[in-house]
Design a protein that fits this description.
Largest sheet: 7 strands, parallel
Strand content: 15-25%
Strand order of the largest sheet: 8-7-6-9-10-11-12
Structural class: alpha/beta
Distance between the termini: 27 Å
CATH class of the largest domain: Alpha Beta
Number of domains: 2
Bound molecules: NADPH dihydro-nicotinamide-adenine-dinucleotide phosphate, oxalic acid
CATH superfamily of the largest domain: NAD(P)-binding Rossmann-like Domain
CATH topology of the largest domain: Rossmann fold
Radius of gyration: 21 Å
Number of helices: 11
Order of helices and strands: EHEEHEHEHHEHEEHEHEHEHEH
Amino acid sequence: MEVVFASQSETQPEDWVCAFQEALPGMRVRAWGDGSAAGGAEIALVWNPPADLFEREPRLRIVFTLGAGVDALLRMPGRPAHVPIVRLEDGGMAVQMAEYVLHFLLRAARGFGRYAQFQAQGRWQRLDDIVREDWPVGIMGAGVLGARVARTIAALEYPVAAWSRSGRAPEGIEGYGGDEGLSAFLGRTRVLVNILPLTAQTEGILCRRVFERMRPHGYLINIARGRHLVEDDLLAALDGGLLEGAALDVFAQEPLPPGHPFWAHPRLQITPHIAGASLVGQTVRQISAKIQAFQRGEPVSGMIDPELQY
Ligand code: NDP
Ligand code: OXD
């Protein structure tokens, strides 16, 4: 069986190709555009694939993504609807997402951002002691990544709730579900963390209506997709005092263009889509096991539901 590795995000795909070849000794793994003849691959390993992938590889039977989100792949023109898509599940990303959220939560709740300012001013000043009840965290998305983030924050005794389509939440975490649960979820939330997949239902969900329903002096942490956020609504919420601050890892346009108002905003912390990186070792191990299950005709976990888009 032939496997093609097609990721425009990798400038040196050799590391991935070698690791997959080692994990799949019975198969031929090649890099897209490596000079060998295209057209024979039955399996594609993709992240940000070239636009003509499906045209030039018409024999594909299944596509595995090197990341969790499949929104860009689902939007690709010419993608054959009958070819199933299987995504990465955690693969080392969940713990990184938890670290990211924890960092920005503590920066706000423990005042570490303000202590950095005090230091710059040569000022010895204590802030008020923390009252955890004043920092209820609400996680949008209680899937593989959201659940890990929720458990991590709960272990540090912050009040945590999760909102999902079904209302499912990890054990011990308060769960809210669907449109009917959203108002109550937002009403108890001060630090809103978005870890939803980008779908027709969730696009633009981080908007004025949502910020208005949160607890006062709120914060936003968006580590899912830029298109979840209505950018002008965030700027208005920050400038109008509805939100105290936000940490953004993902943007509608990446890289974030020079001169974009987010860059210099004093209440925004920006990172370049690094909240949860796909690590070669764990990703290759997981996807290779899925490929072997597919080859044996067994069920493969992480299969995308085309209706739900995640
Ligand atoms: P999962 O599919 O495991 O979880 C998705 C969660 O979102 C589920 O709890 C699901 O509800 C919920 N959900 C989906 N649609 C809705 C909706 N319309 N209303 C309410 N809840 C909804 O995804 P992952 O946790 O693995 O990944 C989440 C996203 O994180 C990815 O799609 C990707 O965009 C982003 N990501 C970002 C990274 C970064 O570096 N910034 C790295 C990795 C991922 P239910 O439980 O009921 O099904
Ligand atoms: C992902 C990502 O979805 O890195 O895996 O954004």
